[in-house]
Design a protein that fits this description.
Length: 442
Amino acid sequence: MKISKKIAVAAIPAVMALASTNVDSKILLMSQEGWEVSFDGAANAFIMKNSVSNVPDSSSSELNIAFDTYGGVAGGNDDTSIVTGLLPNVWGMTLKAPTANGLDISARLGLYTHMNGGENALGNGQINIRETSGSVSGSFGTVLIGRSLGIHQSNAILSDMLLFGVGAAASASNSNTTLGRIGLGYLYTDFQPQISWTLPTLPYGFGAKVGLFDPKDVAADTVGFSATDKSSPRVEAQITWNGDVLATGIGMSLWVDGTYQSTERTEAQAALVTTTAAAGGTEQANDTDVESAGVGFGTKLSYEGFSLVATGFYAHGLGIRGQHSLLPIMQANLGTPVSTGALDDSGKERKTYGGYLQGTFDFGQGTNIGYSYGGNCLQKTGTDMQTRGVMNCQTMHSGMVWHNVTDNFRLIAEGGYTEKTWYLADTDQEDSFGGVGAFFFW
């Protein structure tokens, strides 16, 4: 087999490696028979300074006040750490068969690594296989089967400048990547097993995507009240539009996406919810299933070097950070893990909402500047109103300057400030972070 090597002119945006199996790879191996193997990826590292102040405690009350270590170090302390940012280091590989009968068939494998995770000689940074999938493309669009990026909230994370930064959770004590703006403007979409269909290009600039996903457990603060009997898949969908605003030269992208999952409780979980509800006289006496749903929306406006992004979401039974999952926090006086998740202590679905605004400007010659503000909030249930220390909101200001030294190498300086509030807590928690880093793309 004769192999030739082709180097592309432009560097790969790592975001394309995350979002699609059809990335424009920088390294391409081709055979005479038409088979192609391409490689893409990115590596990054940041040195960050972090500090946390005003962490609530329970000194003024007999009630427990939970505080969140999300994005910081111990209260009143600071640290310096060398970390991987929101994006892990990525090594992506795509194998494409020769086009036949109008069909393009390919397979994708993505390996994701980072440097953090422990202070020992061997180290224990994790490796994730976030992408392993096959896809078929033709006049009908593209059908993907396997693990890949989710649909709901995907445009929010892919439009975030902090995708190439650090954002929240910038401490080396974190055992994985940092969190960027996850939980501070959108819910994490995650890489998930799926069967998804991207429709072919539609008239008037419209696009659409729909998928069936492996359903997730729906987590409650008290484990026994969770819902884990997943008898049907989750459905996610997205509609997009791209075009110009009335020939003004302003480019516009619009999107709306959604998710829905119905999860039954096991017999033991349903019995616990029913017994607890009956004793408390609440409306959940026959609550044997959980409805999880969410809608996201947003726009991106571009004019010459300026770009503006505005996004939002509203969710029911999805949680405040990642879909259906727990938000790790610590109980101040005991030091034991608790959570603020999709369901409250009695198993009732919580409602959450949030969004972010972002402005960036390209000065030319590779230099850019950006600022963003956003956050996520939780609408308390009746049970939450009886619990001191349930989170209200967490918000973040973030600023970034970056310069593309070459098509393959980017320097970044970042700084930010987060604030977290709790129901009936005496004080708010304030975190600040700042540092510099670099990305290498291939």
